[in-house]
């Protein structure tokens, strides 16, 4: 038994060293960036390429995140329906208020459900449209020069669930994002890169990417549909009546 326990202990140590070595070998340090008019011009170029003006005018959009959760977002009033497993939440992200149902039954105290829905929404909406958030409140931007090309480094100094995260955008010749590298608190490997591909043009010309790939995984955005009204997306018009009715 003692030898068996020692063997398990050695295996754990070897595994820990291997994981540490993988992280050290694959991690990149956050690069230096140069702020100023050049960085702002690159941000403008990217926002124009994805048609942020059209994105801002969207009425409603729905999507599924990796088959883990489904969202219907009223962008005009900034309310969102979040569904996962047997849970449904109606969320006001500005106040983290709303209501929740579990297996069709109204939850008396929805606090934990609202907090989880907010965290899911912040993450999953970012993957769906991260490029239009480069000028959110609390962000800073800078130019990174690397291997003869320029990238846009955006740091989120406040807001969201994990302030302090940074993303380095690499653009194609039109200014459209090809990929980003991330330095985020929940991922130990600095500089992990994901592609932006399989672009979809929404009804009013806004662009969204449906696939984000690297060698390890594919972050897939499915069932994207947008419209000027809920009915135009085949949804019931009363989804958000909860907020209009004063609860």
Sum up the structure in keywords.
247 residues, alpha+beta, outer membrane lipoprotein receptor (LolB), chain A, 2 domains, 9-stranded antiparallel β-sheet, 5-stranded antiparallel β-sheet, 5 helices, 14 strands, globular, disordered N terminus
Report on this model:
With 247 residues, this protein is α+β, with helices and mostly antiparallel strands. It has two domains: 1-30; 31-244, Clam (outer membrane lipoprotein receptor (LolB), chain A), CATH 2.50.20. The chain has five helices and 14 strands. It has helices spanning 2-26, 37-49, 52-56, 111-129, 241-244, and strands at 60-65, 69-74, 79-84, 87-92, 97-102, 105-106, 139-146, 149-156, 166-171, 177-183, 192-195, 197-201, 207-213, 218-227. A nine-stranded antiparallel β-sheet has the order 6-5-4-3-2-1-14-13-12, covered by helices on one side. A five-stranded antiparallel β-sheet has the order 7-8-9-10-11, with helices on one face. A hairpin with a 2-residue loop joins β7 (139-146) and β8 (149-156). The longest helix is centred in the N-terminal third of the chain and has 25 residues, at 2-26. It starts with a helix and ends with a helix.
